[in-house]
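Dear colleague,

Thank you for sharing your sequence with our group. We've completed the structure prediction you requested, and as agreed, I am returning the results in plain text so they can be pasted directly into your records. Please verify that the sequence below matches your submission; if there's any discrepancy, let me know and we will rerun it promptly.
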Amino acid sequence: MSRSARTELRGDVEGQLEEMYRDLAVQMKRMGQLQAQAGELRAAFRRLEGPMASNRARRSFAVWTA
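Please find the predicted C-alpha coordinates below.
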Protein backbone atom coordinates (compact mmCIF):
# COMPACT_ATOMS: atom_id res chain seq x y z
CA MET A 1 0.00 0.00 0.00
CA SER A 2 1.43 3.34 -0.99
CA ARG A 3 2.07 6.13 1.46
CA SER A 4 -0.70 8.29 -0.03
CA ALA A 5 -3.16 5.39 0.17
CA ARG A 6 -2.28 4.85 3.85
CA THR A 7 -2.70 8.57 4.53
CA GLU A 8 -6.10 8.57 2.81
CA LEU A 9 -7.18 5.45 4.68
CA ARG A 10 -6.10 6.96 7.99
CA GLY A 11 -8.12 10.10 7.26
CA ASP A 12 -11.17 8.02 6.38
CA VAL A 13 -10.90 5.98 9.58
CA GLU A 14 -10.42 9.10 11.70
CA GLY A 15 -13.49 10.65 10.07
CA GLN A 16 -15.55 7.57 10.85
CA LEU A 17 -14.33 7.57 14.45
CA GLU A 18 -15.26 11.23 14.86
CA GLU A 19 -18.74 10.50 13.51
CA MET A 20 -19.10 7.59 15.91
CA TYR A 21 -18.08 9.78 18.86
CA ARG A 22 -20.64 12.42 17.83
CA ASP A 23 -23.33 9.75 17.57
CA LEU A 24 -22.38 8.35 20.97
CA ALA A 25 -22.55 11.82 22.53
CA VAL A 26 -26.07 12.26 21.15
CA GLN A 27 -27.10 8.84 22.47
CA MET A 28 -25.64 9.56 25.91
CA LYS A 29 -27.50 12.86 26.08
CA ARG A 30 -30.74 11.10 25.16
CA MET A 31 -30.08 8.39 27.75
CA GLY A 32 -29.71 11.10 30.39
CA GLN A 33 -33.03 12.63 29.33
CA LEU A 34 -34.73 9.23 29.53
CA GLN A 35 -33.26 8.58 32.97
CA ALA A 36 -34.57 11.94 34.17
CA GLN A 37 -38.03 11.15 32.81
CA ALA A 38 -37.97 7.73 34.49
CA GLY A 39 -37.05 9.42 37.77
CA GLU A 40 -39.97 11.81 37.41
CA LEU A 41 -42.32 8.87 36.76
CA ARG A 42 -40.99 7.00 39.79
CA ALA A 43 -41.58 10.04 41.97
CA ALA A 44 -45.12 10.45 40.60
CA PHE A 45 -45.93 6.80 41.29
CA ARG A 46 -44.56 7.08 44.81
CA ARG A 47 -46.82 10.07 45.42
CA LEU A 48 -49.78 8.10 44.07
CA GLU A 49 -48.95 5.02 46.14
CA GLY A 50 -48.79 6.97 49.36
CA PRO A 51 -47.33 5.73 52.64
CA MET A 52 -49.54 2.63 52.84
CA ALA A 53 -48.41 1.12 49.50
CA SER A 54 -47.16 -2.41 49.60
CA ASN A 55 -43.54 -3.26 48.98
CA ARG A 56 -44.70 -5.70 46.31
CA ALA A 57 -46.12 -2.88 44.15
CA ARG A 58 -42.89 -0.92 44.48
CA ARG A 59 -40.78 -3.92 43.50
CA SER A 60 -43.01 -4.58 40.51
CA PHE A 61 -42.70 -0.99 39.31
CA ALA A 62 -38.93 -1.08 39.85
CA VAL A 63 -38.64 -4.03 37.47
CA TRP A 64 -40.38 -2.06 34.70
CA THR A 65 -38.22 1.07 35.18
CA ALA A 66 -34.86 -0.60 35.73
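Summary note from our side: The chain is about 90% helix and 0% strand.

Kind regards,
the structure core
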